[in-house]
Amino acid sequence: xxxxxxxxxxxxxxxxxxxxxxxxxxxxxxxxxxxxxxxxxxxxxxxxxxxxxxxxxxxxxxxxxxxxxxxxxxxxxxxxxxxxxxxxxxxxxxxxxxxxxxxxxxxxxxxxxxxxxxxxxxxxxxxxxxxxxxxxxxxxxxxxxxxxxxxxxxxxxxxxxxxxxxxxxxxxxxxxxxxxxxxxxxxxxxxxxxxxxxxxxxxxxxxxxxxxxxxxxxxxxxxxxxxxxxxxxxxxxxxxxxxxxxxxxxxxxxxxxxxxxxxxxxxx
Length: 268
Hints:
By secondary structure, the protein is an alpha/beta fold. It has helices at 38-49, 62-68, 103-113, 166-174, 196-207, 224-229, 241-246, 258-266, and strands at residues 4-5, 20-23, 53-57, 78-81, 86-89, 97-98, 118-122, 125-128, 144-145, 157-161, 178-183, 186-190, 214-218, 232-236, 249-251.
């Protein structure tokens, strides 16, 4: 049994249903083949019927998240996509909150990260810079190959693949942008407030609820702030060492449907 509790972290009040369950997708809710298991569909549906709001928080753009979550379309959920740059209803393509960086800022970040290849997600779709490898789970056959980032639209997320220099990362932070990582070798640059924790805080403020009433699931560095803020932060057993150490609890791996197993043990 992989599940365990770490000491020294706050816990949800015994017997109380949380206000929300927020979960990452890739390597957390989704199995290695990119699908949602039947056990997970059943568990999330049952938790939603208790009146708990389900929130999906992912580095994927909204269109890609909706594709992989088709089996959960019956749930009235919230979707935080592009690492929290876009927030809104899971079923509604119209966003309620958007945080973007200008094309000038994104080009500056790409120059700092040079020679790493880059890609950019915008509201209108994805752009792939020179030499971008096929490493994204949210691969888009409609993505446009470009030589340089055009200045006609703001950017939700700039991605670079490889190992950046510390000077590059410091330069990005010094420019007022933020960076994180959802997978090994992948760097994601966003505008201030375009992160999962800030987007979830926005949603909770609208609902007049608090992080103490949230259960969060994740596996990667871009989940750390969200797991730390939540009353209960749960890592799947396949999470990075940093995430495993920071989590309140650890559940089974994503391929064992660890999110579903935790919900069954604790809420259902």
